[in-house]
Amino acid sequence: MGAFILRRLALALPSLLGISVVLFAVLALAPGDPFAELATNSNVPPEVRVHLRASLGLDDPVALRYLHWLVAMLRGDWGFSFISRVDVTTLIWQRVPVTLGLIGASQLLALAIAIPVGTLSAVRPYSWFDRIASTLALAGFSLPTFFTGILLILVFSIKLDWLPFVYRSDVEATGWAAVVEHVREAIMPVAVLGLFQGAGWTRYVRSAVLDVVRLDHVTTARSKGLSERVVITRHVLRNALIPVVTLVALQMPTVFGGAIVTEQIFRIPGIGSLLIDAILRNDTPVIMGVTFVFSMLVILFNLVADLLYGLLDPRIAYR
Amino acid sequence: MNEQMLHDLVEQVRDGRLARRDFIGRMVALGVGLPLASAMLAGVAVAQGNAAEPAYKPTKRGGGGPLRLLLWQGPTLLNPHFATGTKDQEGSRVFYESLARYDADGVLVPVLAAEIPSRANGGIAADGLSTTWKLKKNVQWHDGQPFSADDVVFNWQFVTDPAGGAFSVGFYANVRSVEKLDATTVRFNFIKATPIWDRACNICLIPRHLFAAYVGAKSREAPANQKPVGTGPYRFVAFTPGDLVRGELNPNYHLPNRPFFDTIEMKGGGDATSAARAVLQTGEFDYAWNVQVEDNVLKTMEANGKGRVVFKPSGNPEMIMLNAADPWTEVDGERANVKSRHFAFSDPAVRKAFGLLVDRKSIQDFVYGRAATATANTLNNPAQYNSKAIVAEFNVDKANALLDAAGWKRGGDGVRSKDGKRLKLVFQTSINSVRQKVQAIVKQACAKAGIEVELKTVQASVFFSSDLTNPDTYGKFFADVEMFLNNRVGTDPDRFMQQWVSWEICQKSNGWQLQNKCRWSSADYDKLFRASEVELDPVRRAALFVQMNDMACNAGFVVPVALRAQVTALGKSISAPLTGWDLDMSGLHDWFRA
Lengths: 319, 594
Prior knowledge:
The complex is a heterodimer of chains A (about 325) and B (about 600). Chain A has helices at about 1-30, 35-40, 45-55, 60-75, 90-125, 130-140, 145-160, 175-215, 215-225, 230-255, 260-265, 270-280, 285-310. With about 325 residues, chain A is mostly helical. Chain B contains 16 helices and 21 strands. In chain B, the strands form 5 sheets. In chain B, strands 1, 7, 8, 9, 10, 11, 12, 16, 17, 18 and 19 form an 11-stranded mixed beta sheet that branches. A 3-stranded antiparallel beta sheet of chain B has the order 4-6-5, covered by helices on one side. The chains are: A mainly alpha (about 325), B alpha+beta (about 600).
């Protein structure tokens, strides 16, 4: 298994290199200029803009710029943002706690909904509960987050005035008041993301449990006289969760980037909003840094999913 | 009581250290009549130039609770010399201050300076080669170090170091040196005699003792880039680039009874519409920056009564440019070469007709609302630069008559042509719903006059970029007509008016980086502009600019449409002096909650 991991990691290197080449080329070909705002400012002479571009190496040939970036990256230097002049690693680390906390919470919410609801639906298929759950799930993953987000703001912030709709990572209060404030401002974004994700996963859990619940070993367990609760948790759910776990593991990287829209709506300072700001301002080092982290996470979690598969189902061997 | 003492007392009233009533009481006690005592103070209010700015009322420092500001683009860095975006300049301005700022009328008022240099007080040299600034005494940086002339000199050195990459170098362009005369006096020496002596005084000043080790190539490494130490009313607490800036009351601020708020928070991100909503509809924030949202949307939000929208007049006109060169044929390997002539716009009748087809009133009423004022002038505001000679006119019949007389005959499809050239124009601008509406209004009127207009829209990041390889930039102007807004920063119009001088024409040889996009030029205009560069008398100089405005507008290659206002949303109880001539945060020390 050690050899398997090593081989997979070695294979990942060329993929990462390929990804970085493609990214860099696309960014270089894309129109725009990090100092575009200076262009409409008649008090800033064009020489200043030209000088700024030159000082950041923006006028060098693309291949040379890529080589500079690659060499620095290999030495562990991720470069600094053209816009804020802060190191890319600092910028990313600043955003990690909020991203992990908030988006992690929404994933937990999604699992907390998907597993019980999906299982109950599958155990009693075509019951009233199943029909209602299926309808809601369909509605849930059909409604995009930008719609549900604005809908929640309209209802809970503007009409009812219960919740704030601007997320502050740094609330003024301390102690319990701070915790309450954090929860208040996190409710809407977590609900938007969690319900969207949960709706999709409910369908997966339901179909996975449906597949297992008809198998012979479940019938055997029932005929042994085991209680329904034990049959479902021990014999059905454990087997049914194998594909679900893989699915969740593969979706982990999107935890970091998949919430861009929600982050924009609620002004959450997560990694997604860092990326979108960087793209809008043509801040190449930050775009490269963030997308590079994303690609590494994708590759890493693919590997994790493969390994988890083996742990849950010992019949799968690694060669 | 001698004159000096009286002067000091008036100063105290001006600074708010002495209440008006107390001043008048003292004067009356000294035997000065009440009317005379009030008259002395009437001069103070005028000297402040605060007709358009609300008066500061709180009588003690602090106690105002938090001030919450929302910028839909959050500041990404807090060093004023690297603050390339307005959002970054606003963020820096919370902590840093400049020698002087512009008020709502475009009048310079002192901040870190004790007074504004003038010929009368000897601050402006008669030969125009230098200005002497007296600095305010007893100003401290947030870390307790004294602010002095050394800091002012240092800022000039820091900015002009070529390896430093400071964008503010453009503001020091005509400065030969900054010289310390004594601890609180500095002299700006200019390369040549100049009437523009106030440009560098509006740039925020950073402390020498924290940046001295980081001049030039090392400038990026200064820890104070992320943790500003300024002289402003609020001192630094925390900063996350692009997201949040936090500050707290500066207990040693150099103005009495200021600031009012205990903490300040500047949150970034999101979009303009929801930023306006957070102030006007939910009241979560006290201020939203640059809310460029359609006026009817803002009006429905204002109906909630939680806030109001402030429209600040400025000098930024939305203008339509007609290409003087031929954008469709290559001359010397270059389209829109200045040596070529446009097939239609070389005829003055076509230019005049086009000007008559821009329905400014409809554009203001149906597109901009309160966010702009129709104007036929390219140079607008402050008052001394406003021309009376140019009058806006929308008249399709007159345009038709002009074109008929000039020999542009209508064809079977209603489109005019002359010498086999169809009067078909490509009109380009950036993608922006407001601009597309204006384009449509112009196109409709042109159709009535037999001019076919093809509308072209370009992504703003492309249109305004300096990308040499992209044919759709506004500098290349490979179209017949284009529309954009030219920002005029500061009140002095010299950089703005140089957009029609012959040496600023955008061409391949200069990478299309210069200011004259429409490629019209005239020897007379050049002459006027050169004269304005050396005219030291402000009145005569203003007259020169008005003449230039009239000349450019009459030539017809530039068709001003509307003067855009800067739009800000404020909470109902917030009193804030906002100016279209300086940053919103430039008056932060006078903000309070009524």
